[in-house]
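Input:
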Amino acid sequence: MRLLWSLGLIRGLVWGIVGTAIGIGFTMLVRMALGKPAWETAPVTFVAAVFGTLAFLAGVGAFADWWRWASGEEAGDPPHHHEGPEWVRYFNFDTDHKIIGVQYTITSLVLMFAAGIMALIMRLELAQSGLQFVTPEQFNSAMGLHGIVMIGSILLGVAGMANYLLPLMLGAPDMAFPRLNALSFWVAPPAAILLFLSLAFGGFDTGWTGYPPLGAVGATGKQFFYLGVFFLGFSSILGAINFITTTLKMRAPGMSMFRMPIFVWGVFAAAWIQLTGTQFIGTSFLMVVLERLLGMGFFDPEKGGDPVLFQHIFWFYSHPAVYIFVLPGLGVISELLPVFVRKPLFGYKWVALSSMGIATVGFLVWAHHMFTVGLPNEANTFFMFTTMLVAVPTGVKFFSWVATMWGGKIEFRTPMLFLLGAFVTFLLGGLTGPFLAVVPVDQYLHDTYFVVGHFHNTMFGGFVFPFLAAIYYWFPKVTGRMYSERLGKVHFWLMLVGFVAQTGSMFQTGLFGMRRRIADYDPSLGFDTIHLIGSIGGYLVFFSMLIFAYNMIRSLVAGEKAPANPWNSRSLEWLLPSPVKGVSWPTPPVVVGHPYDYGVPNATFVRLAPAGGSDRSSQTTTPAHETKEANR
Amino acid sequence: MSTHVSHATYDRLAINRLGLWLFIFSDALIFAILLITRFALFGTSRPEELNQALGLGLTVILLVSSLTAYRAEAAIATGDRSGLLRNLLLTIIFGTLFLVGVVGWEWREAPHLGIVPQEGYGIAFFSMTGLHAFHVLTGVLLLLIVFFNARRGAYGPDNYWGVEAAVKYWHFVDVVWVFFYPALYLVR
Amino acid sequence: MNTLEQLRAKKMRVGWLVGAGLAVTTVVEYYIAVGLARPLVPLAIVALIKAWLIVVYFMHIKQLWTSEEGGH
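Output:
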């Protein structure tokens, strides 16, 4: 019992429930005092949800240090010493970035499985024409939840990788704001709970975009959806403050911006979108909630509002949001590729700057989601050109990868396979993009499964495959054990085949006019077989993820011990013992060279500061055999 | 492995400042969105009935509070603790006055002039002043915390990040009003 | 101590000057709104000037790229 109570998660849940109850009571009292009927679902649950979330955070202990500061005590530096078993820390408010990174990643994977089950429901229904399993409303709720929970999962996955790796790669003791870091993680669990609670209040049939006027009326479940996204966004913004500040202020001596690992560049660029863009989806959803609760007609033409305004504000975040997902993912690709090819990353500076380029151009393309809204032709043309422009910095990355691989000795281990999978799917996604960017073609393809196929290919190529590659690659770093290479390869091939089959069916049905967001289709369209193939593919992807989960859990318990540097990487994090204990870099290393000089004779990246005669001090990061390899 | 780390190699103050500025920049965008919404929905039109004297009065109060907030920070930066307390208190009073003026006066009066939160210009007016008032409220609470900490002697000329942060946040709230006041009360 | 007091006097002088600037611009702003038929652009310019005064002199945005001023 005492052990249970020592888990922040349990405390948070109990406090959260109590807080929700207090919120309900408080709202009902206020309403009675104002002479209104005590119960009305929407306002009461809204206040209760906010109270519950804050109580959850208080229960976890997120506010403890700030409360101490406010009441005049010294809060001091976050503690680095902990009592009790190590695993308890993963369920508590902990300021160590390595703990937080793992917390983020596990939460991300849990959400990914939950959202995957939603996708399975949809694929099951679509496998055959006619309605077999769900009502159209349930189908739409499953679709909306699949979308938004996946987005949440990806945001958390990005934050997980960034949190774990940034201080290790930059040679910093921890993130710039450890307490804020822990807070931004702990906002996510109640946000996810709110998203799923929407199912208990009638779901939301708007899809993840939540467009008004449909979003402004109907079931209270939509309100939970808006609120959940709002809190997720809050978490994302706080995380971005940490990433940017850590990158700018806490690099090891000698590590100039252009000596940073390329993954850090991806996170840095994405963090700027998180910091600035997220406010737009947050505010647009806040406005819809105000319209729902207080009748403020932001998007109601009868009251002087404008529903198209919502789409502008919404997409101003939600388009760049895909670059939040993709930029760190592409960063992982550029980070791992040189390790497995044993060659320097081609055009490092261009790859680094292309991340910033994508982040910048990404803010100029939002209205390509609105080609069928009826904007002026001038606007549509402008957004068509800016959208095409995205292909330039993305192309820079792609050609850099090709040139990096050119003439290299590729080691086909599991992370490398996932990189190749990322190339295939990202290329498919990239090649279908320009069709959708062209206004007249998009008028036809808008809202068809072609768009769904394009989107999922960019997401799998830009995030899911690299994310899985990253998990395999850094699994030995995090756990000190190796995963099963054989299961990893099975996972990869099943996933690639299943995914290509699934999105292939999407492209084909979409081209022939299959609308998205619809539970049923006319059997006379002849889509049954193609949809069945797509559904089988979808189930294969899920099945491969089960293999992945089994591999991870089994290897965590019984995997063989990992060597100190299983990939012969030159990067900073592999100079530390696995798993890293205590403060990541108590004394920062000194960076004297370039991170990706694989195979370059006598190249040194880092010199460890002579800290009390530690035996690591004499190491350099170039493995001995490597210096003999001539670089072509 | 040592369990203690000294952050001495890192410029903690510079890190804090950058973080705060990033937060302010991000927060400012919410107000920018509402400002855009106001012009997108209603152009430069505004109802003639708005209480101009009240609007101007509120603006003056908030600008003066920014001056006192600046003086509070300048006082502690040069070791004047009583000046810090005096100016913090003035800032808190002005901030509270502003809140009373907006929520207690303007919000009561406007519906009688035909400006209601549900439709027309009132949508912009109430959402903008409301969100701003919420920030003023948090700013006043923050200044109160700093005030009580200052009374305990928590700050000195070498150590006043708490004051600096609260004051910067307060100035930010003021800057928002610098744009909101003409957008809500003056444009035509 | 003497230098601290000089510094304080200087800071207070800057404060009064900026305060005066804000007062003047507010008056200008009000008369622009009363006097002009289409005051949008002039109002925006005046608002930017006011914001610049506060951000530069009250919020010390320069601290972000210079470490000399106001290090404590």
